[in-house]
Design brief:
- The protein is α/β, with parallel strands linked by helices.
- Helix content is about 20%, strand content about 30%.
- A six-stranded mixed beta sheet has the order 2-1-3-7-9-13, sandwiched between helices.
Length: about 350
């Protein structure tokens, strides 16, 4: 990443241990994965990444006051003349509930029935307060449930002392929810019997190359597209009992943010069978851009292509007016088998 990442900051929260609620297994490990990526690949200095996590040794912590203190520390540093904060990442994994389409209340470790509001951060109010503070680029990643609860709204930040100020000029806020409104976010045992959230698993895959472009860049729009598709795919593969539909909302300027550069694009081997007489194989992406176009030797009826993990259209063309096409949504295959696409014809 460029030197500008030195002016980026992050607050990463993972809560497994809830003395009064169902305990989770994935959030602390998932938060560590995200924080490690921000430092190692996102270009953030270690001192700019604030980690908050639960532990069995400190039951009922963290509480909301710790989150407020951490954000105040980040804002104080970023607003210093020598710092000039550019981007803020906020990641949360733990329990959550929701009242509206774009709302989520993030539960701290001391959450208990009857006092949810006091122990939960209202993510909408925090986002609105931060829209007026220093960072013109803000990314929110919420790996938590959004089941409906009529009374749980959550608490506003205690440091928001100027609520009537205008938002920053040029502000971009990208918000990614692990689940749709009224849905649950699930975790499963995916790595050496360790549980991870489906959302964070897809997120890390995307950042590590599954969402990279041909020029080796991961942007927020490409990441959101991949995560949305991949979460649905993981939910099917792991036989999740209910739908989980990741959602992404962008507030302010509608422009993609560059999250990582020099990232090798992750590819999957695809065997394509096609009719005899095919002269060209053409692969296009969701936007209609041609990713690859290769000539086919006479009498060939199959080919192996290494293709990016994306929504793709594969076309076998014999003449300008004679084509056979198929659309695929290419996802990682943990078994490293070759994906098969049949456009007609058969392998010799």
């Amino acid at each position: 990443m460029s030197a500008s990442a030195n002016h980026d900051y992050a607050l990463v929260i993972g809560i497994d241990h809830y003395p009064h609620l169902k305990e989770l297994e994935g959030p602390v490990k998932d938060a560590k994965r995200v924080a490690d990526w921000l430092e190692l690949h996102g270009g953030l200095p270690r001192e700019n990444v604030k980690r908050i996590e639960s532990s069995r040794a400190h039951q009922g912590q963290p509480v909301l006051a710790e989150v407020d203190v951490a954000l105040e520390e980040i804002l104080t540093r970023a607003e210093a003349p020598a710092s000039a904060g550019r981007r803020l990442y906020i990641y949360f994994a733990g329990h959550g509930m929701s009242q509206e389409l774009e709302h989520v209340a993030l539960f701290m470790a001391d959450a208990a029935e009857g006092r949810y509001n006091r122990a939960a951060a209202n993510a909408v109010e925090y986002r609105k307060a931060l829209a007026r503070r220093v960072f013109r680029e803000q990314i929110y990643l919420f790996d938590c449930c959004r089941r409906y609860d009529a009374v749980t709204w959550g608490t506003k930040p205690n440091w928001d002392t100027h609520p009537k100020e205008k938002n920053l000029t040029g502000l971009v806020q990208v918000v990614m929810f692990a689940a749709g409104f009224q849905e649950a976010a699930w975790e499963r045992r995916m790595h050496y019997d360790e549980r991870h959230g489906l959302f964070t698993e897809a997120l890390m895959e995307g950042l590590d190359g599954a969402a990279a472009s041909q020029n080796r860049i991961v942007t927020s729009d490409r990441l959101a597209s991949y995560v949305q598709r991949r979460v649905e795919d993981l939910a099917r593969r792991w036989k999740v009992e209910e739908d989980q539909n990741c959602e992404c909302v962008v507030y302010g300027r509608q422009r993609p943010l560059i999250l990582a550069t020099d990232v090798d694009q992750r590819v999957q081997s695809v065997t394509v069978t096609f009719p005899k007489g095919t002269k060209h194989l053409i692969v296009t992406d969701e936007g209609g851009e041609t990713l690859t176009a290769i000539p086919v030797r006479p009498h060939d009826t199959d080919a192996v292509l290494d293709l990016p993990l994306a929504w793709l259209k594969i076309t076998a063309e014999s003449t300008a007016s004679t084509r056979a096409s198929k659309v695929i949504d290419l996802m990682p295959d943990e078994g490293n088998t070759t994906y098969l696409v049949d456009l007609g014809g058969s392998a010799p």
